[in-house]
Amino acid sequence: MATQRITREFLRQLPKTDLHLHLDGSIRIATLIELAREAGVALPSETEEGLRETVFKEHYENLEQYLRGFGYTTKVMQQAESIERIAYELGVDNQAEGVRYIEVRFAPQLHTHKDFDIVDTLRAVSNGLARAKQAFNVRPEVVSGAEPPFDYAIIACAMRYFDERFSSYYRTFLGLLRYGHPAQAYAQASLELAQAAIHARREEGLPVSGLDLAGPEKGYPPHHHRGAYEHAHRGFLHKTVHAGEDYGPESIFEAITELHADRVGHATSLFNPAAIQNPAIADRERYVEELTQYIAARRITLEVCLTSNQQTQPAYRELARHPFGEMMKKRLSVSLCTDSRTVSNTTVTDEVYKAVTTFGLSRHELKNILVYGFKRSFFPGDYAKKRAYVRTCMDYFDRLWPANE
Predict the structure, then answer these.
(1) CA distances from 397 to 103, 260, 364, 373 (A)
(2) What CATH number should be reported for the domain holding residue 378?
(3) pLDDT digit string (tens) for 129-178?
């Protein structure tokens, strides 16, 4: 099947994953409006068209403007019922476009308050996704084995930075300042999250399988959170880190070496020697090349979010300039992700379509990308079950798109 014959509808049918998916960036706008009305949260508009014009735009001037919408979504995600509903609807929306596995990430500390702690937030997300999973997997097509089932995992996001705009946790954070320097308070907050995530998995049986670090990179380096990631490492949690999105390649290296990252979110600065800000790195071109080979040899998977990067980084408005093309040439392990379905107004199918049509991916290349999504996932079951699940999904891919077409 020639690239020009590949349509969105065809790509929609293929089994896909989304490994970089922010819950609070992927709320249905109609749901946001309804929940805001119930919670007394003021929005710039009470229509979807109005919110698309004022908040959830087609293009953003910068990352700060992109993040503005999260200030509204987190305010309506302070109750278990609301969080569960949003998670359920996110599962259903993914199922509708052929996404068979998702890893939903969010920052529990942005949703906690008195009588509603970190584990409560994780439980609410899991309850919603479990309902979506159960409803999908009883379908005759899944039960008969004609189609692969739907599954999910949860990634807990530690935050590089807290402020009063987002949640009541800011008051808790101010209390953590007793540890001294703000960096120590951020470190303690991340450690508490890692401890709660491991408790949720081991004691509650929740599919919390990974730890993430999100927030502004400049001024908030990964090593501040080393203690949390060491704890996660010892607790056998998988690890991913937002790195190289608005800082240089050295941020990516630190995420991998200091925080044991199995995957890296975005990593758009990877091939850009000019983005290096560490004066100790004298030969920048050599540093970039060696870092690239280091990532390739260890199969560190890069979570690529094409639309999100186009929206927040002017250099990639022309998508052909995105480093995804170079990632493919270097044969890196990559997975196509949405980042935030609502904020970026995108779907996994849209991301795959952009990649195929802009970079001319062959069937073999696309299959490799999709299989990386399954193979490099933080699948919550045991390894034997994961292998069987990956095989089921790839067999389904081959039935939909035979190798001889």
Answers:
(1) 20, 32, 11, 13
(2) 3.20.20.140
(3) 999 999 999 999 999 999 999 999 999 999 998 765 545 555 565 565 56
